[in-house]
Amino acid sequence: MTEKQEKILQAALELFAKEGFHATSTNKVAKFAGVSEGLIFRHFCNKEGLLQAILNSGERRLKSLFAEIIMETDPKEVIRKTITMTDHIDESEYDFWKLQFKLKWELEISGDKKMQPLKMALANAFSSLNYESPELEAELLLLFTEGLGAAVLKGSSINTEEMIQFLLKKYKL
Amino acid sequence: MTEKQEKILQAALELFAKEGFHATSTNKVAKFAGVSEGLIFRHFCNKEGLLQAILNSGERRLKSLFAEIIMETDPKEVIRKTITMTDHIDESEYDFWKLQFKLKWELEISGDKKMQPLKMALANAFSSLNYESPELEAELLLLFTEGLGAAVLKGSSINTEEMIQFLLKKYKL
DNA sequence: GTTTAAAATGTGAGTACTTACTTATTTAGT
DNA sequence: ACTAAATAAGTAAGTACTCACATTTTAAAC
């Protein structure tokens, strides 16, 4: 991975996240990265390839964030970590997460599959704590987590900290 | 409002909702509507104007959906109607709602302001029922509602009916 | 009720510009 | 010297948008 290759990835991530995939031209990416436009196609084949490269390099972030929760053995901790997840995403990774959310709507990249392990871990946790409907509880909590994440990334007026504390209280954690 | 004008609005709504605003060209809209491309600009000035026309004509739907909840006096009914809202949106209006959600990400049209009256109605309802933190309860419920709506429109595997019943039970309704 | 002129609606062929992508050529690392 | 990295200058197709012209609708005058 050369220096310019990384510059392209960085620039594309920022622009795709802030303006959207279709609204960002390869010309714009090249200029923002301080690179000739042709280089994008030399390294990433086409615009779609550039996007895939970004997504692949970001996969680690996604997995490491989820892994910490899934590895947890204490059921209460699984739930607590899920609720506080939004607060643990680093500001330097905002662009990546924003892109992830944006692509769910702009292209039809669901990201539903990637949530599955987390959903199962949550369902197990709720089951261990003798909740009546563990699967539904898991789904509901994920709905909340996604909603809160979306709100934060969209710069909503919502008070994240307060909301997280409120939820922890609701789940008696 | 002429016949062709409505055809343009219909076509644009469907295409914007399904492919996205930036990904849909005016040429595509014109062909899909069976109309000359120039007519779009005669009637709606530019592409942005076309979008605004769609949004304005859809405003009624948004208001009528929220109004029914806000007018409600029984606090328990306010909460119940909010929870079941997702199930009440007609399939013929899917495109409109999908566009609404998509635009939140593609452009930065928040739609946060339009939620404010509903949020206040919910906060009042929770307050009447002596909940400890009515504002947070309201915000949380809206987070769920939006998340559930998004899931349905994205064609998620989630069981909407079941989830709604589950939530009603949680809120003792 | 017909005529007629003006206004509104609609078209098709353009425009200048941008798009994703290519290719011939040059630069730099080993 | 050979290979990979990088560039500059293309290209064809697509973009939003315009404009001169044709058609229909409206409405007032006779």
What features would you describe in this structure?
Two copies of one chain form a homodimer. Chain A has 173 residues and is mainly α. Chain A has nine helices and no strands. Chain A has a single domain (3-170), classed as Tetracycline Repressor, domain 2 (Orthogonal Bundle), CATH 1.10.357.10. Chain A has helices at residues 3-19, 26-33, 37-44, 47-71, 75-88, 94-106, 112-128, 134-153, 160-170. Chain A starts with a helix and ends with a helix. Chain A binds chain B through residues 20, 22-23, 101-102, 104-106, 108, 110, 112, 133, 136, 139-140, 143-144, 146-148, 150-151, 154, 156-158, 162-163, 166-167, and chain B through 20, 22-23, 101-102, 104-106, 108, 110, 112, 133, 136, 139-140, 143-144, 146-148, 150-151, 154, 156-158, 162-163, 166-167. The structure holds a DNA duplex (30 and 30 nucleotides).
